[in-house]
Each structure stands twice: as structure tokens, then as C-alpha cells.
Design goal:
The protein is mainly alpha-helical. The protein has helices at residues 3-12, 29-70, 86-92, 95-126, 133-145, 148-159, 165-172, 184-212, 216-224, 229-240, 242-257, 261-266, 278-287, 292-322. The chain has one domain (96-322): MetI-like fold, CATH 1.10.3720. It is built from 14 helices and no strands. It holds the Pfam family BPD_transp_1.
């Protein structure tokens, strides 16, 4: 074998096609591959374009129309006169907006981290030998599976009035009536606890999936090195499930901020607007006060805040992936 042949074989492999073997007048192999790639990309683009255009119209039109309404003195049937940023100015100077913002923040933080802590704890428990684990898992999934209308109705029956079972039991034990949904403070606590109760199964499933991907050999090696359970949790478990944790936080944050039925069916935003979140405030502003422009402005402010926090958490996911 000559030196050029040896060099060609070493560079491209023994079976690689040779430029000298192509038919006279045929395009070079690299150029043919490039044309084929462009043709395939163009075909895929043509096939995908109608669906993308349809989705853009379906999702884009309400956003654009909502943005128009937020800058007008809108009603439910017309856009009204253009007001510029007056609706946003009114929103940021309205005390009820900041009160709703504060409770939305409390509701979201408790809902996200409370459900995550309970879900992670149960996911770790279910990794051990638990008698009747299958039935236990099914029961734990019920708060997430049962429709929110049913679960809020059940909670109202249990705690809403002094004649409900739980207040009667507390009164029989010699304590004062708790007024779960009548007092502003206890109403806030009740609504937050309901959110944790209804959401922990989702977190449990997310954390169980993440824990299943952690190599068990890491725990065995750390045990041999004398690491305790707390050290295993903080040094092995949490770092290895970091990506799934951040994803679950983003999803649960969106669920909490946009959770209208839980609050509206439990308290209606009361008493004295103490449990009114931004999504409930936007609903009241549009459909009860008929101030459509202001209500849509509240919704856009809420959306912008959600996007901002989601971007921050997504960057944390990228850091975990590159670590």
C-alpha cells in the first residue's frame, strides 16, 4: 500500500468513500450531505409551520388583546377609551393590590416549601420497608386525585361553622371555638394548610422519581465512611435531586399563584379580604366590579412576576446541570 493510500485510510477509515471513486460530474460528498440536510430541514419546517402558526394565533391573540384591554378603560363588551398606563398606576397605588400581593407571597411560599417538605419526607419514608406500602401510596395520592370542588366541600363540612365536626370536638375538649374560616388569621392558616394538604402528593411523586435515580452505592460508601443520615441527606440526597427539586418548585409556584378555586371555594377571599390573592383580586375586579382594564393589568403584573421568578429558578437548574 502506497503512502497516500495509508494516509487516506488512517484519516477516513479503510471503508471511507474516496473522492476519486465518485462518478464524473457528480457533486462532492460533503456538498451532497449539505444539500440533503437543508432539504430535510425545509421539509420539516413546512410540515411544522401550520401547527406553530395555529398555536401562535390561539395563544398570542388573547395575550395581545389582553394587553390592549389593560391600556384602555375596557368593559366586558368593548375596549373603551385609551388610558395608557393609568390602569397600571392605579394598580400599584391601590392598597388592596399590595394586601393581595402579600398574601399571595405567603400562600405561595407555604404551598411550595410546605408541600415539598412533606412530599420529600414521605418519599424518603416510602423507600423503606413500610407495611401495606401499596395501599399507603394510594391513600396518599387521594388529596391530589380528588377534584378540588369535592375536597373544599369536605373541608367546609369539617371546619366551616361551630357545628362542624372538628370545632365541636375542640369545644368538647374544653377549648374555645377556633373559627377556622371566620377569623382572618386562622382563615389564612387554614387556606395555607389546605394547599399543602392538596399539593404534597405531587411533590411526593416528583421526589420519589428523583430519589429512584440516585445511585444506592453512594449511600453504602458514605456509610462505610461513617456518614450519618443527616449527612447523607444534605451531602448526597439533596444535591443529586437538585434538578428535580427546582423543576417541582417552578411548577408548584405556578400552581399556587394561579390557584383560584381552592381559595374562592373555601373562603371567597374573606373574611375582610384577608385571604384574597392576586388571582382572586383580578377576578373580582373584572367580573364583580366590571373594571376590566384594571383587572387585566393585575393579571399582567402577576404574569411578569411569575416569569421573572421562573427564570431565576431555571438558571439554578442550569447551574445544577453544569455542576
Amino acid at each position: 500500500m502506497s503512502a497516500p493510500e495509508i494516509s487516506r485510510t488512517a484519516t477516513h477509515g479503510a471503508n471511507a468513500p474516496d473522492e476519486s471513486d465518485r462518478a464524473p460530474g457528480a457533486a462532492p460528498i460533503g456538498r451532497r450531505h449539505s444539500r440533503r440536510g437543508r432539504s430535510r430541514a425545509l421539509t420539516l419546517l413546512v410540515l411544522v409551520a401550520p401547527s406553530v402558526l395555529l398555536l401562535a394565533v390561539i395563544n398570542g391573540y388573547p395575550v395581545v388583546y389582553g394587553l390592549v384591554q389593560s391600556t384602555h378603560d375596557s368593559t366586558l363588551i368593548s375596549s373603551g377609551a385609551w388610558t395608557g398606563l393609568a390602569n397600571y398606576t392605579h394598580v400599584f397605588t391601590d392598597p388592596s393590590f399590595w394586601s393581595a400581593t402579600l398574601f399571595t407571597l405567603i400562600f405561595t411560599v407555604v404551598g411550595v416549601f410546605g408541600s415539598w417538605a412533606v412530599g420529600l419526607g414521605l418519599a424518603l419514608l416510602l423507600r423503606t420497608s413500610v407495611p401495606g406500602a401499596t395501599a399507603f401510596k394510594v391513600l396518599l395520592m387521594l388529596p391530589w386525585v380528588v377534584p378540588v370542588v369535592v375536597s373544599t366541600t369536605a373541608w367546609n363540612w369539617l371546619i366551616a361553622t361551630s357545628e362542624s365536626p372538628i370545632p365541636k370536638l375542640i369545644h368538647a375538649l374544653g377549648f374555645a371555638d377556633p373559627m377556622f374560616l371566620s377569623d382572618p388569621t386562622t382563615a389564612k392558616v387554614t387556606v395555607c394548610l389546605f394547599k399543602v394538604w392538596a399539593s404534597f402528593p405531587f411533590m411526593m411523586v416528583m421526589m420519589s422519581s428523583a430519589l429512584a435515580a440516585v445511585d444506592h452505592a453512594l449511600y453504602e460508601a458514605s456509610s462505610l465512611d461513617g456518614a450519618g443520615r443527616w449527612q447523607q441527606l444534605t451531602r448526597i440526597t439533596l444535591p443529586n435531586i437538585g434538578r428535580s427539586t427546582y423543576i417541582s418548585w417552578i411548577l408548584m409556584m405556578i400552581f399556587c399563584v394561579n390557584d383560584f378555586p381552592s381559595i374562592y371555594l373555601l373562603t371567597g377571599g374573606g373574611p375582610a379580604n384577608s385571604t384574597t390573592t392576586l388571582i382572586v383580586l383580578a377576578y373580582r375586579t373584572v367580573f364583580q366590579n366590571f373594571q376590566v382594564g384594571t383587572g387585566v393589568a393585575i393579571a399582567f403584573v402577576l404574569t411578569a412576576a411569575l416569569v421573572l421568578v421562573s427564570v431565576v429558578l431555571y438558571r439554578q437548574i442550569r447551574k445544577v446541570e453544569t455542576a
